[in-house]
Design goal:
- The complex is a heterodimer of chains A (164) and B (145).
- By secondary structure, chain A is an all-alpha fold.
- Chain A is 70% helix and 0% strand.
- Chain A has helices at residues 10-13, 19-39, 47-56, 65-93, 103-119, 124-133, 137-159.
- Chain B is built from 6 helices and no strands.
- The chains are: A mainly alpha (164), B mainly alpha (145).
- At the A-B interface, helix 2, helix 3, helix 4, helix 5 and helix 6 of A face helix 1, helix 2, helix 3, helix 4 and helix 5 of B.
Chain lengths: 164, 145
């Protein structure tokens, strides 16, 4: 009983409030928009994986023109993401923050993320932000798929008692 | 290049302020404990959506590269669904996606390097496998023709 009632309250749906999420989302969009307006480049975060692998692997897959041609700016973009988050940490976080999520979840999940984003042509920023912003049907399908499967997976993991 | 760095900076700052750099916050969303993530993805998509619409409709060419403004429309095939599903399992297991993982490094979350290593391994295995597959297809095509 006591578990059901508060679910209806807005505060329970957003225990940390809405503002940091909305502000963060608008900034994420603004970051992509700045790059796009200046250069015409539609920035996604996951192609960085393949384009960076082209520095160290001679497998033809990683050395396709679009990866080799874009690998330098993708490094700069990623360095920007890391330092932007670091600026936040210095200004507002007060020291470093580390996750409690277990290493095998990070490693195994990361591996599947690496396979899945590359096979599926994009990730949460490429499809989720830029693709949806482009009203691309391909991206809508991809986002709907990964959202549904991720929710199912996270619920299963939780039900199995894995925490954190 | 400097403008790409500045864009990345804003992007990463936004990810950090939204909490997406913390896997716990993402997992809370996926477990229906905090729906804030909808505002992150939604807010970001509205900004890019408006930008794309204005640029493709009213602007000429990008000032720095002279490239034409386009939308991000990728071809649909089975891989979009299969890849999305595999990504979904990984995201649900770890609470981490590529951009958020880089931002997580920035907030000092060194355990996240496990996820970064995992992503590179995954991308490598995927790329290597596709290289192998395409070379075997080439062989069969050569034989059959």
């Amino acid at each position: 009983m006591s578990e059901l009632t508060p679910m209806l309250a807005l505060g329970e749906l957003f225990p940390r409030g809405i503002l940091p999420y909305l502000l963060g989302g608008l900034l994420v969009g603004l970051g992509a928009a700045v790059i796009y307006l200046a250069t015409g480049i539609i920035a996604g975060a996951s192609t960085f994986l393949e384009s960076t692998l082209s520095y160290i692997s001679d497998a033809p897959r990683f050395n396709r023109f679009k990866y080799v041609q874009s690998r330098d700016w993708r490094l700069v973009f990623t360095a920007g993401i890391v330092s932007g988050a670091a600026v936040y940490a210095v200004l507002f976080q007060g020291g470093i923050w580390t996750t409690e999520v277990q290493w095998w979840r990070l490693l195994g999940g990361g591996f599947l993320v690496g396979v899945g984003t590359r096979l599926g042509k994009g990730c949460t920023s490429g499809h989720g932000v830029c693709g949806v912003g482009s009203l691309s049907n391909t991206s809508f399908v991809n986002v709907a798929t990964f959202l549904a499967i991720a929710i199912g997976t996270a619920q299963l993991v939780q039900a199995a008692g894995v925490a954190p | 290049m400097p403008i790409i760095y500045v864009g990345g900076l804003i992007f990463g700052f936004g990810l950090a302020i939204s909490g997406m750099a913390r896997p716990e916050v993402v997992l809370d969303f996926l477990q229906f404990e905090d729906f804030g993530l909808l505002f992150v993805m939604g807010g970001a998509a509205v900004v890019t959506g408006l930008t794309f619409a204005v640029a493709t409709g009213y602007l000429d060419r990008a000032p720095l590269t002279a490239s034409e403004y386009t939308r991000r429309v990728k071809e649909f095939d089975r891989n979009v669904v299969v890849g999305g599903a595999i990504f979904g399992v990984g995201w649900g297991l770890s609470g981490i996606c590529p951009g958020a993982a880089y931002a997580s490094v920035g907030i000092g979350n060194y355990p996240i390097l496990w996820a970064v290593i995992g992503m590179f391994l995954g991308a490598y295995v995927q790329g290597y496998w596709r290289t192998l597959r395409s070379s075997t297809t080439d062989v069969t095509e050569t034989v059959s023709s």
